[in-house]
UniProtKB/TrEMBL annotation:
It is a single-pass type I membrane protein. Interacts (via lumenal domain) with lysosomal protein MFSD1; the interaction starts while both proteins are still in the endoplasmic reticulum and is required for stabilization of MFSD1 in lysosomes but has no direct effect on its targeting to lysosomes or transporter activity. Belongs to the GLMP family. GO terms for cellular component: lysosomal membrane. It is found in: Lysosome membrane. Required to protect lysosomal transporter MFSD1 from lysosomal proteolysis and for MFSD1 lysosomal localization. The chain crosses the membrane at residues 361-382. It comes from Aphis gossypii. Residues 1-20 form the signal peptide. InterPro entries: NCU-G1. This is Lysosomal protein NCU-G1. It holds the Pfam family NCU-G1. Keywords: Glycoprotein, Lysosome, Membrane, Signal, Transmembrane, Transmembrane helix. The lineage of its organism: Eukaryota, Metazoa, Ecdysozoa, Arthropoda, Hexapoda. Its main location: membrane.
């Protein structure tokens, strides 16, 4: 009975992994007939990831604030964008989505870390840069027979009253059709239901020699939820994967039903393009707040999808925000290398780190071992019994 259970368990684990692969398909401004007209109003990159029973749609919009919206629908649902209509509600799906989760780059902050605490709460002389005021350029590349897609948004300057920044700020989205481990540090485990977002700040000129940067991210969840989103951290059981970074942060929008959306990252940034452990520093993450400031949400594709139903007391959505700052005390500030690289995962369903960790793998391995030993034992006993039976037949003992 035990052996049967473990066979069933092992089989389910492996079939879920195999069945979870998705076919990717990319489009720029999907459904647009007059490209010149559309690209005036819209910088939409769309990735469709078709699974066996459902489709995951990744909408990366750089029209205003760079935003990644992940939508799950039935297998056949198609995105429909009306480029001639008002923005409110002009993105629809032919079948209503089961679930939507999103992450938005809201603001970039520079602050003067006079006492080298690396904590934004001790910062001075804040400079707030709205992510929508960078002018985003988009490039896209598709790798390995459509098994992964990479979208790059870059901007080379920021101009606003009292702010004149040069340097390259970029946001990269990577989506993979298979579950795997990122090839570069910090080796985040991605699933076909998640996208990896990377922010790089390359050669930004700073106002102060002790400048550090931080970002404010927004998250959106559509599930019938109990109005909670939790930030938790857990130590990572497999040290080989994380290159010395044992901690993992998980921001989880838990629904009443299993499987909301999540953000997941390791508290590490890199100070060079070469993401080597020797060139790393830390992040600090701060409390999650409710965030109902309409002007910011209006600058996201969520407004294109949900319009004014995002707001008000009867809103069915979870709207949250939180800050992450880059750097740790004594790391010689941003100016040490004038480069920051931070990466995190945005996805839906079970967060990958908890789904098949080292612990689970070792349990499966030991079950398989036990099963094999049991089979061998049964086989031996059976052979003994057979030969003793044959002996008794031949010699009549
Ligand atoms: C798709 O649905 C079928 C039938 O309900 C089920 O057997 C199969 O496991 C599902 N596949 C995935 C990837 O969930
Ligand atoms: C798009 O919106 C415009 C203006 O609201 C409307 O006239 C047009 O019929 C819409 N197109 C489609 C395909 O729905
Ligand atoms: C920095 O440290 C000095 C001396 O300890 C203190 O007076 C000052 O308030 C600190 N500044 C900030 C922003 O924490
Ligand atoms: C990759 O996807 C594109 C469309 O997104 C398609 O035209 C092409 O044939 C696909 N290539 C492979 C090898 O599947
Ligand atoms: C965007 O790319 C075009 C062509 O590659 C270039 O001319 C332009 O300067 C870029 N703009 C920004 C803001 O990076
Ligand atoms: C940053 O420097 C610019 C000039 O480059 C100046 O106009 C601005 O006031 C400075 N900001 C702060 C917060 O010191
Ligand atoms: C912004 O800075 C650049 C380089 O630092 C400079 O060439 C440009 O004149 C400045 N623009 C303004 C409006 O100050
Ligand atoms: C959500 O709230 C309802 C009623 O307040 C409660 O019955 C249910 O157990 C809650 N679900 C979770 C996952 O906390
Ligand atoms: C760390 O970054 C510096 C440049 O800032 C580079 O010269 C060095 O090779 C990097 N070290 C590693 C181990 O990648
Ligand atoms: C929304 O709720 C707040 C406080 O709970 C209340 O003061 C306000 O009148 C409500 N607004 C509407 C439109 O119901
Ligand atoms: C992020 O930090 C900035 C600067 O201290 C602050 O104004 C903002 O309210 C913070 N946002 C959140 C969500 O804590
Ligand atoms: C970073 O930029 C500042 C000027 O903004 C410069 O003083 C410093 O030397 C630069 N650091 C490196 C490592 O190039």
């Amino acid at each position: 009975m035990n052996a049967l259970n473990s066979i069933v368990f092992v089989l389910t684990v492996f079939t879920t992994i195999v069945a979870a692969d998705r076919k990717l398909h990319v489009e720029w401004n999907p459904g647009c007939v007059l490209e010149d007209h559309c690209s005036k109003f819209s910088k939409l990159t769309y990735i469709r990831a078709d699974g066996e029973n459902d489709t995951v749609h990744f909408v990366l919009d750089a029209t205003f604030k760079p935003s990644l919206v992940i939508v799950v629908t039935n297998r056949d649902a198609v995105i429909q964008v009306n480029y001639t209509a008002d923005r409110e509600n002009n993105i629809k799906f032919t079948e209503s989505p089961h679930y939507t989760f999103a992450s938005v780059f809201n603001n970039l902050y520079e602050f003067n870390d006079v006492n080298d605490t690396a904590n934004i709460k001790n910062g001075q002389n804040f400079i707030k840069m709205d992510f929508k005021k960078f002018h985003w350029n988009t490039t896209q590349s598709i790798n390995n027979n459509n098994e992964s897609v990479e979208i790059l948004l870059t901007s080379n300057s920021y101009r606003a009253p009292g702010i004149n920044k040069t340097g390259i700020v970029s946001v990269t989205l990577k989506v993979y059709g298979k579950k795997d481990i990122g090839s570069k540090l910090p080796h985040l485990v991605h699933t076909p239901e998640s996208g990896e977002l990377t922010l790089t700040l390359n050669n930004l000129n700073t106002n102060f020699t002790k400048s550090r940067f931080a970002i404010e991210l927004l998250t959106f969840s559509s599930f019938p939820f109990n109005k909670t989103e939790e930030l938790s951290s857990n130590t990572f059981s497999d040290d080989k994967l994380s290159g010395g970074t044992f901690l993992n942060y998980l921001l989880n929008a838990k629904g009443d039903v299993e499987g909301g959306g999540f953000l997941s990252w390791k508290p590490v940034v890199y100070k060079a393009e070469n993401t080597h452990a020797l060139n790393s520093s830390s992040t600090i993450q701060y409390d999650i707040h409710d965030y109902h400031y309409e002007n910011d949400w209006i600058n996201t594709p969520l407004f294109n999808m949900y319009g004014n139903s995002l707001f008000g007391n009867s809103s069915q959505f979870l709207l949250k925000s939180f800050n992450v700052s880059f750097g740790q005390p004594n790391d010689e500030f941003y100016a040490k290398s004038n480069y920051t690289y931070w990466t995190f995962l945005v996805g839906i369903g079970a967060p990958p780190n908890s789904s098949l960790g080292f612990l689970e793998l070792s349990i499966i391995a030991s079950l398989l071992l036990m099963l094999t030993i049991t089979m061998i034992l049964i086989f031996c006993i059976f052979m003994r019994w057979m030969s003793s039976k044959r002996n008794s037949l031949v010699y009549g003992q």
